[in-house]
């Protein structure tokens, strides 16, 4: 069954702790993306990767880090430097290139206490 | 930089009413345009897309959208809504030959039975 998985669905952390969100895809897509969704602001791009071992900052990369060591995996770390980390985080993937239809995972809701 | 505006943040209507959601973008070059939908508790999924050709595109579940280049618009329509259309709708833009989507703020639609 092809798709994108994100785990866990809900995540709670104390302020000042780093936390890593998982994203895995078995669609054989080259490109992967991380978005943050806040009410009324739509989706904002955090980081994206078009190919293994390469990634670029999106519009709101400060306080986040990523890695892309494998084609199917694109974990996102929310660091203690992120000033407002509580949000819904969505991972997506696409074939890449000119026709950039993206497929989304179910999301992880992170709450920092 | 490109941007996408969805002017209606919340829409409430009754079943069988017609729906039109506005989407305007700012970017002077060639674009790919998308409408995504997020049903309660479900993944963000693609409703329809425009890459080129016929500016009137049809998507799933009876939705359609019209690309009007001169107005920088890509409005979403459905002639008769159902209670199951209750969801949040997002318009998104990708610069042709680009590699990342820019989303609008979303429109929450509530269809009363």
Task: Say what oligomer this is.
Answer: heterodimer
Q: By helix and strand content of chain A, what is the structural category?
A: mainly beta
Order of helices and strands of chain A: EEEEEEEEEEE
Radius of gyration of chain A: 13 Å
Number of helices of chain A: 0
Structural class of chain B: mainly beta
**How far apart lie the N and C ends of chain A?**
36 Å
Structure summary, number of beta strands of chain B: 12
State the shape of chain B.
globular
Give the rounded overall mean pLDDT of chain B: 93
Report the helical percentage of chain B: under 10%
Q: What percent strand of chain A? A: over 45%
In short:
Chain A is mainly beta. Chain A has strands spanning 4-7, 10-13, 19-25, 31-38, 42-51, 54-57, 64-66, 76-78, 87-94, 103-104, 108-112.
Overview of this protein structure:
The complex is a heterodimer of chains A (113) and B (113). Chain A is mostly beta strands. Chain A has strands at 4-7, 10-13, 19-25, 31-38, 42-51, 54-57, 64-66, 76-78, 87-94, 103-104, 108-112. In chain A, a hairpin with a 3-residue loop joins strand 4 and strand 5 (42-51). Helices cover 0% and strands 51% of the residues of chain A. Chain B is an all-beta fold. Chain B has strands at residues 3-5, 10-14, 19-21, 24-26, 31-38, 44-50, 56-58, 64-68, 73-78, 87-95, 102-103, 107-112. Chain B is globular and about 40 Å long. Chain A binds chain B through residues 31, 33, 35, 40-45, 48, 50, 58, 90, 92, 96-107, and chain B through 4, 6, 9, 32, 34, 36, 43-46, 49, 51, 90, 92, 94, 96-106.
């Amino acid at each position: 069954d092809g798709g994108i998985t994100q785990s866990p669905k809900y995540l709670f952390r104390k302020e000042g702790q780093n936390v890593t969100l998982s994203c895995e895809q078995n669609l054989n897509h080259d490109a992967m993306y991380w978005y943050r969704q806040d009410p009324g602001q739509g989706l904002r791009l955090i980081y994206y990767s078009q190919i293994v071992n390469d990634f670029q900052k999106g519009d709101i990369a400060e306080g986040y880090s990523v890695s892309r060591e494998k084609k199917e995996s694109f974990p996102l770390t929310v660091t203690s430097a992120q000033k407002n980390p509580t949000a819904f985080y969505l991972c997506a993937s696409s074939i890449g290139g000119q026709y950039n239809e993206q497929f989304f995972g179910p999301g992880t809701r992170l709450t920092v206490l | 930089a490109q941007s996408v505006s969805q002017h209606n943040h919340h829409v409430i209507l009754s079943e069988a009413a017609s729906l039109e959601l506005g989407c305007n973008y700012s970017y002077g070059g060639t674009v790919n345009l998308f409408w995504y939908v997020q049903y309660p508790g479900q993944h963000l999924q693609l409703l329809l897309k425009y890459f080129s050709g016929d500016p009137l595109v049809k998507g799933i579940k009876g939705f359609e959208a019209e690309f009007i280049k001169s107005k920088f618009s890509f409005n979403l329509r459905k002639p008769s809504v159902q209670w199951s259309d209750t969801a949040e709708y997002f318009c998104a833009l990708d610069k042709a030959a680009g590699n990342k989507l820019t989303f609008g703020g979303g429109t929450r639609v509530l269809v009363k039975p």
